[in-house]
Specification:
The structure holds 2 protein chains of 2 kinds.
Chain A: H1 9-18, E1 23-27, E2 33-34, E3 49-53, E4 57-66, E5 80-87, E6 92-95, E7 97-98, E8 110-118, E9 121-128
Parallel strand pairs in A: 7-9
Antiparallel strand pairs in A: 1-2, 1-3, 4-5, 4-8, 5-6, 8-9
Chain B: E1 5-12, H1 23-38, E2 47-50, H2 61-68, E3 75-78, H3 85-98, E4 104-111, H4 119-122, H5 136-150, H6 154-171, H7 183-188, E5 191-194, E6 196-197, E7 207-215, H8 216-221, E8 228-237, H9 253-264, E9 273-275, H10 281-291, H11 296-304, H12 321-324, H13 331-342, E10 354-361, E11 366-373
Parallel strand pairs in B: 2-3, 2-4, 9-10
Antiparallel strand pairs in B: 1-7, 1-8, 4-7, 5-6, 8-11, 10-11
Classes of the chains: A mainly beta, B alpha/beta.
The structure holds zinc ion (ZN).
InterPro entries (chain A): ChsH2_C, ChsH2_Znr, NA-bd_OB-fold, Thioester_dehydratase-like
Domain ChsH2 C-terminal OB-fold (chain A): 51-115
Protein name (chain A): OB-fold protein
């Protein structure tokens, strides 16, 4: 018998990303879905959850464009964007929009998931669908 | 409350770059001056409430400060709500005094991110850090973008809020930034995190400010020169991370204000001026709306008509606020509210009798409201 230590929800999320699978948690007791990873349902506080894979469609809630790099790894990528998207399945996440058009209000636009190998990880980014 | 609390004294340090000073040293200077202002001896103080500095978070900071001040307070410690802590602690002090837990409390804030660490403002956030997600300003930019989506000409309101604060700061000899702002300069300034420009963002400052809180009856007994009654206090906490907030342009500021106005038995229209936490211009726009000072359109019109100036219909941030006086998170706004009620502000609003002060913390995680009046 091997006694493998259980992975934390964050570790499971990261391991799934490494396999290019974007996942969120869903409560077995009340059906609430959420990101980022945590060990109890923020709605009913139950510790019973399951992992679900996102279909990859989402809607933009808001976005910003960095003109200052607080993170030195992004210094040579300025200006770069960070966006907030609602997955079709309900959970919300922070991401980047690939090829974001300049000077357009993209709130409410549909985006689709596109993994990029970057910073030695598989990063979940999105692209405008229409 | 059965017996009203008053702010009996105020004290502050210089604001700006203060090299070589610890936050304990800054707190002590502000407390010493607040006690001098109230003409109260240190030994009478039996409550000490303090906000932990963002530049260096450490455990038992309240006790460390008490030790440095040679105090063993009956009631005291740190309360952490970020920038909302100041007004919340004044409320806690008032309630503690009413409940017989202490009689005279010092409430103080010091920070030194200008010469010390500003990591708290620039840090990367959670699992999204690898996507470049970092800094407090970016969190506010996310809110501002959504606000601009709802109100496409909000940029003009942001600009008018910044121009008013900078005009007031220019007249304030204690202000860190005394350079007035005009439309052309505002529009020409660099983006920090779009849609927030340089002049939408507060200063980074070293400094401290403190107040002495006691009951109105005690202030009378001690013959305090210029006590300013606390008419209302309130809190409201959005709590969730900005990225998870269901509606990015709604916070619990409305709950905080409703609690404070109900306690005071007053309404927004009774206020002669407002000191509104202005870490970013969008915060002021949202707070004024949440407090009931008017719809976006009404505020937009007010800004265009110069209504936020000292002789306007709604004078705001009359000492310059975080955008001009000091970026220190919030206590300076309480001090300016007290000065307005005493009638000795450098930008005195004529016949000012009532003032509302807002504090908030994090990325609109926390909010607290104070109503002062004569
Ligand atoms: Zn649940």
């Amino acid at each position: 018998m091997t006694d493998t230590p259980a992975m934390s929800p964050t570790e499971t999320y990261r391991a799934n990303l490494a396999e290019r699978r974007l996942t969120f948690q869903s409560c077995r007791a009340c059906g609430q879905t959420w990101m980022p990873a945590r060990s109890e349902c923020p709605n009913c506080l139950s510790p019973e959850f399951e992992w679900c894979e996102a279909g990859g469609r989402a809607t933009i809630v808001s976005w910003v464009v960095f003109h200052v790099a607080f993170d030195p790894r992004y210094e040579d990528r300025l200006p770069y964007n960070v966006a907030l998207v609602d997955l079709e399945e309900g959970a919300r996440m922070v991401t980047n929009i690939i090829d974001l058009p300049d000077g357009e209000d993209v709130i409410g636009r549909t985006v689709t998931l596109e993994f990029e190998h970057d910073l030695e990880r598989e990063l979940p980014r999105f692209r405008l669908a229409d | 409350m059965a017996s009203r609390a008053v702010i009996a004294g105020i004290g502050q340090t210089a604001f700006g770059r203060l090299p070589g000073r610890t936050t304990e040293s800054l707190n002590i200077e502000a407390c010493r001056k607040a006690l001098e202002d109230a003409a109260i001896e240190k030994d009478r103080v039996d409550g000490l409430l303090v906000k932990v500095p963002t530049s260096r978070v450490e455990m038992m900071y309240g006790q460390k400060l008490a030790e440095a001040m040679g105090m063993q307070p009956r009631f005291g410690g740190v309360f952490d709500q970020g920038g909302a802590s100041n007004i919340s602690m004044i409320g806690i002090a008032a309630m503690a005094i009413e409940a017989g837990q202490c009689e005279i409390a010092l409430v103080s804030l010091a920070d030194n991110p200008k010469t010390g660490s500003r990591a708290a403002y620039e840090k990367p956030w959670g699992d999204a850090a690898d996507l470049g997600w970092s800094s407090v300003v970016a969190g506010y930019a996310l809110i501002a973008r959504r606000y601009l989506h709802e109100f496409p000409n909000a940029e003009e309101l942001f600009r008018d809020i910044a121009i008013a604060a900078r005009a007031h700061g220019a007249e304030n000899p204690n202000a860190q930034l005394r350079k007035p702002l005009d439309t052309a300069t505002y529009e020409a300034a660099n983006w920090i995190v779009e849609p927030l420009r340089r002049d939408d963002c507060c200063l980074i400052s070293d400094g401290a400010a403190a107040v002495v809180v006691m009951s109105e009856a005690r202030a009378k007994e001690l013959d305090v020169r210029a006590p300013v009654p606390v008419l209302g206090i309130g809190q409201g906490n959005s709590s969730s991370d900005v990225t998870l907030r269901a509606d990015l342009t709604k916070t619990r500021a409305d709950v905080s204000a409703a609690t404070a106005f109900a306690m005071a038995g007053l309404e927004p229209r009774d206020m002669d001026c407002a000191q509104i936490y202005d870490c970013f211009t969008v915060t002021v726009a949202m707070t004024l709306e949440a407090y009931g000072f008017g719809s976006f359109d009404a505020l937009h019109e007010l800004g265009r008509a110069g209504g936020f100036g000292v002789s306007g219909d709604l004078p705001i941030n009359t000492s310059g606020g975080l955008l001009s006086e000091t970026g220190m998170p919030g206590m300076q706004l309480v001090l300016e509210g007290v000065r307005q009620m005493r009638g000795d502000s450098v930008n005195q609003v004529e016949n000012a009798r009532k003032c509302v002060v807002s504090n908030q913390g994090g990325i609109m995680h926390t909010h607290s409201t104070l109503i002062l009046g004569q």
